[in-house]
Write a structure and sequence with these properties.
Spore Coat Polysaccharide Biosynthesis Protein SpsA, Chain A; 428 residues; 12% strand
């Protein structure tokens, strides 16, 4: 059995980093839970005062979205919003399927829908490029973004609009996304739990603590003048939403999370699609950090720099710590190493596991999804789904810093959905 001082220090490093991150997450979790009640009171206040609603142009970037675009437009056309104050611009970004013909048919029946076909020479260059192409065609002063697989609830946009016009400090407002195919299989159930936990812990908690949230890529509104001032979306960014979030805060504006402005979206239904999407996210965050890391602690307001550091900690320090702790655990179980560091580490591990489980259960309770099945899945996810993120981060680091692969945006594959079940979920 091998024991060495380096192993001892490695073990202690892993424990300290993991518990630092767990502690920070617990603070966000508590604040996020409280924010849910504050958000409800603010909603009631705005519904009573009824601020004048702005005119909105909603852009829907679409690349080979024939499978889902009709459902999305149907939901958007049925939004609870004055018809004369809203338009929908579908940006057909080099589709080779029937996306354009489906949109043209719908547009012929409702003048609020317009189709813009990106010129072939400029097509299929990614979501950011498509949005930049469409921005100049928008007619109104507030810009909304929805992905082509979304089914927003009827009041989603009106909730966002009320918040945006009621506070001039806000540059953007973001809603909540839900998993519309969450019952499809084990993977989609895990993704549903992950998405709800992220939003109630990270988005809601950060807003309550720092008045900070990040753009989620869909279901959000922005001031048009701000987008133009910032020069639009960064076409090199694989996660154009998180990159733009940084620049919004640098410009002196806030992004607010509105948990009751809900859209339902499709999530990956197999590991291949999930892994490809998550690696794109990891590489997108790598790009954001590379772009801003030289001045990470000079950015004003300071909360942006702190959040960048947190992102770096999650994607690097935290996962290095998890990877090292897993490796040391396996080697110790095999009897190959010994780590004679004094301390109640077994109890610490069980406490950390219990804290992880409790946080997610309470986060799910906000959506009445704290069912026995989901509680069991939370426990299972700790040993399975969560560990998959190690491979995701390693692949992202390898692609960006070893192979230096080109940042090429790749749309997430869509799947057929049960329209009747989707309608029941959205209305329920």
């Amino acid at each position: 059995m091998f024991s060495h001082l380096v192993l001892n220090y490695t073990f202690v490093f892993s424990v300290v980093v993991i518990w630092f991150m767990l502690g920070y997450q617990f603070i966000l979790f508590m604040l996020g839970y409280v924010y849910g009640f504050r958000a409800r009171r603010r909603r009631e206040q705005l519904e009573r005062t009824g601020p004048e609603l702005p005119a909105i142009s909603i852009m829907i970037p679409a690349h080979n979205e024939g499978m889902v675009i009709a459902k999305t437009l149907d939901a958007l056309l049925n939004l609870n919003y004055p018809q004369e104050k809203i338009e929908f611009l579908v940006i057909n970004d080099g589709s080779t399927d029937d996306t354009a013909s489906i949109v043209e048919t719908i547009a012929s029946k409702d003048s609020r829908v317009r189709l813009f076909n990106v010129p072939l020479a400029l097509a299929a260059r990614g979501k950011a490029a498509a949005l930049n192409q469409g921005l100049g065609l928008c007619r109104h002063t507030v810009i909304g973004i929805f992905d082509a697989d979304n089914t927003p609830e009827a009041d989603s946009v009106i909730h966002l609009a009320r918040q945006l016009v009621a506070d001039e400090r806000l540059g953007a407002v973001v809603g909540k996304f839900r998993c519309i195919n969450k019952k499809k299989n084990l993977l989609t159930r895990f993704v549903n739990i992950e998405g709800l936990a992220f939003q109630w812990i990270i988005q809601a908690g950060r807003w309550n603590l720092f008045q900070m949230a990040t753009l989620p890529g869909t279901n959000y509104l922005m001031r048009r003048t701000l987008i133009e001032e910032l020069g639009g979306w960064d076409t090199e960014a694989l996660t154009e939403d998180s990159e733009l979030s940084i620049r919004i805060y640098e410009a002196g504006y806030l992004i607010k999370f509105i948990p009751y402005a809900v859209t339902w979206e499709q999530e990956p239904e197999n590991l291949r699609v999930w892994f490809k999407q998550r690696v794109r996210w990891a590489r997108g965050n790598n790009y954001v950090l590379e772009k801003h890391v030289a001045r990470i602690f000079k950015i004003k307001p300071w909360v942006v720099g702190m959040e960048l550091f947190y992102t770096m900690a999650v994607y690097y320090l935290f996962f290095i710590a998890i990877l090292l702790s897993d490796l040391l655990f396996v080697l110790a179980v095999l009897g190959w190493i010994s780590i004679p560091v004094p301390g109640p580490y077994r109890e610490v591990w069980f406490f950390a596991f219990g804290l992880f489980t409790l946080e997610l259960i309470i986060a799910l309770s906000r959506e009445r999804e704290d069912t026995p099945l989901n509680i069991g899945l939370i426990v299972l996810s700790y040993f399975t789904y969560c560990q998959l993120w190690i491979a995701v981060v390693l692949k992202g680091v390898y692609d960006d810093f070893v192979l230096r692969r080109e940042h090429k945006w790749d749309k997430t594959q869509r799947f057929e959905v049960d329209l009747q079940e989707c309608e029941q979920l959205v209305k329920g």
